[in-house]
Amino acid sequence: MSDLLSNAPLGHDVTYPDTYSPELLFALSRDTNRQALRLPGVWHGADIWNAYEMSWLTPRGKPVVATAQFVFPYDSPNLIESKSFKLYLNSLNQERIADVSTLEQRITKDLSNAAGAPVDVQISPLGELGIVQCAPLKGVCIDNLDIAITQYQPDPGLLRCTDTAGSVTEVLTSDLLKSNCPVTGQPDWGSVQVSYTGRAIDRASLLAYIVSLRQHTEFHEHCIEKMYCDILHACAPTSLSVYARYTRRGGLDINPWRSSHPVAVTNTRTHNRARPMDAAGVVTCSGISRESVKRSMQKREGIQQCKDYVADACTERAADAVAARATHMASPAAATNATAAPTHGACL
Questions:
Q1: pLDDT tens digit sequence for 232-244
Q2: Which CATH number fits domain 22-129: 1.10.530.10, 3.10.129.10, 3.30.1130.10, 3.40.47.10?
Q3: pTM for the complete prediction?
Q4: Which of 66, 92, 151, 286 is geometrically suited to a Cys-Cys bond with 129, CB 3.0 to 4.6 A?
């Protein structure tokens, strides 16, 4: 991998572009990493990128600021190196563009050419942004299990099923996911959701396995594919989905999911990556507009945004936290501070 990245901008000093430069996009073959995995015959997935620092000029030279969502199919031949993606987006800063639709078409063409497959692009200027929810990944959090951990390199041998007979369906989550950039060594922090049907997975073994990636060096997409394949072969569930939400770096976050079947995932930031909750147990921030969400649902099957992302964002963990803070939240000053939604930049 290091040889493949020797010409990538990541880990090198670069000059930021001041003109539109699609040639900056640096593509990496997915096959290089997948050769070391026991890939399933059939699987599904996507990589959901969010950009929080986008800007360009109107035809009259006035700046526009926006957020954006990019969905790369899991079966595209290539993924995009993140720093090259940031440089590419910054190359648009001084570009005069007629409207959002024109920009979406241009970026869609550039990213699809680099990835080798159609990429879905949704851009939301700041003035169009609605209120989106930040909430924990839904499921049972296993982080409070009292276990001893000594392994900090990926070890699928840690995974095991319980002796319980029969099949279960459950969703388990952890906020303790950490890996490292293979070029810079910088930490990548994330939350992960494992949904499956099959023999019950021993939760302590799953948590130990998740933590075992702590000193592992791979890109986000590679880590999730490794986790998916390891769990699939160690525990043999009849269905499996692994979805990770990573903290942003450089104005971008990358959120891959892989599944044995098509699933609808929500592009919702997790609580531990955002600001404190409001009085209803929900962190609010400006984000992707409702109009963009609807366009995305119509344009691409399998990557479904929340149909009503201002509802049902409170989970059991959020409700518990609200109850613990009830006395504090009862004061007028606290309620005022808690219900004031931060801007999309402050929340990230």
A1: 999 999 999 999 9
A2: 3.30.1130.10
A3: 0.78
A4: 286
